Amino acid sequence: PAVTVEPSKPAPVVSTTPIQPRISLPVGKDHTEKIKGMRKAMVKTMTEANNIPTFGYDDEFDMSALVDLRSKVKAITDEKGVKFSYMPIIMKAVSMALTEFPMLNASVDKTCENITYKAVHNIGIAMDTQDGLIVPNVKNVQSLSIFELAAELNRLQSLGLAGKLGTSDLSGGTFSLSNIGAIGGTYARPVILPPEVSIGALGKIQALPRYDNHGNVIKKHIMCVSWSADHRVIEGAYMARFSNLLKSFLENPGLIMLYLR
Ligand code: CAO
User: Fold this and answer.
1) What separation in Å is there between the alpha carbon of 225 and the centre of ligand 1?
2) For residues 210 and 222, what is the distance between their CA atoms, to the nearest angstrom?
3) 196-255: per-residue pLDDT in tens?
4) DSSP character for 12?
């Protein structure tokens, strides 16, 4: 794999302080300023994305087994200095599902005449930073362990918060995820990052009442997931089947173990 992670080396501690835009406005007076830097890049990408005929597909995933699993391994990863959120497990499961649904890990050219199925899974993670939205990607997710993914995500998050992400971390993404649930909310409408063809948004994991197989109401940890895909090349049914496979991995983490290479 292109990414090498040293598990025994503690990753830098990541601040979880909420990020607010750094603007101080004059009181009682309008203020106009140039849109520049990362926000200027966002203007270009998002305007381009708006020309793509996009469909949305949403579902809710029962994350109860994963909440339990994470609470069991977190002490081990904490000891190794790696902050372990749900993202590394979700990324690995997404990569395993992408292997079965390669059309979602693809790019199209500007005129949408050619589609390229990507050989690697470079999963972009939308990050909320002082400078605006940035989407660094973890390279070769298909060949990294879940622990290596956690360490790599810590590295990207630290660099992102410090405004120090380089071009190599920010380019070459093949599929994207936006964990808006780290801030709050349920469903979202994520916008595709061209030339990619699909993106997923993850809502906040919430403890909610749901029925079990015997009709009893029990407490479950529910995460709403919202997908957007380029409808010129992806059919809704294809996205729904991908989402179902991912759901089965996340709801039954034992399956991840079974199919992990
Ligand atoms: N539901 C419930 N809890 C969540 C969660 C979710 N969806 N996502 C994260 N958490 C929890 C984590 O498990 C962690 O809990 P502990 O403190 O108990 O360990 C805590 O919230 C902080 O997590 P984090 O945000 O530091 O780490 P992460 O790997 O889950 O997410 C990142 C990293 C970069 C995706 C996230 O910090 C972020 O910036 N999200 C915003 C993305 C965004 O702005 N999207 C919109 C793009 S379109 O404008």
Assistant:
1) 14
2) 9
3) 999 999 999 999 999 999 999 999 999 999 999 999 999 999 999 999 999 999 999 999
4) P
DSSP state of 256: H
183: Cβ below 6 Å to ligand 1? yes
Identify whether 231 is a catalytic site residue: yes
128 lines ligand 1 (CB under 6 A): yes
Q: Which residue has the tokens 């007076």?
A: 29
Cα–Cα dist 20/129, whole Å:
8
Q: Which SS3 state, helix, strand or coil, does residue 157 take? A: helix
Task: Provide the whole-model pTM.
Answer: 0.92
Rounded CA-CA distance 108/195 in Å is 6
What ipTM did this prediction achieve?
A: 0.96
State in Å: Cα 113 to ligand 1 middle: 36
**Domain map (residue ranges) of the chain:** 38-259
| Per annotation, catalytic residue among 31, 121, 214, 231 | 231
**Strand-strand pairing, 137-138 and 123-125:** antiparallel
Q: Tokens representing 151?
A: 């360490």
Superfamily classification of domain 38-259: Chloramphenicol acetyltransferase-like domain (3.30.559.10)
- For the stretch 45-66, pLDDT in tens is 999 999 999 999 999 999 999 9
The per-residue pLDDT of the chain, averaged, comes to: 92
Name the residue of 133, 179, 189, 193 to mutate for ligand 1: max ligand atoms within 8 A of Cβ.
Answer: 179
pLDDT in tens, 58-103: 999 999 999 999 999 999 999 999 999 999 999 999 999 999 999 9
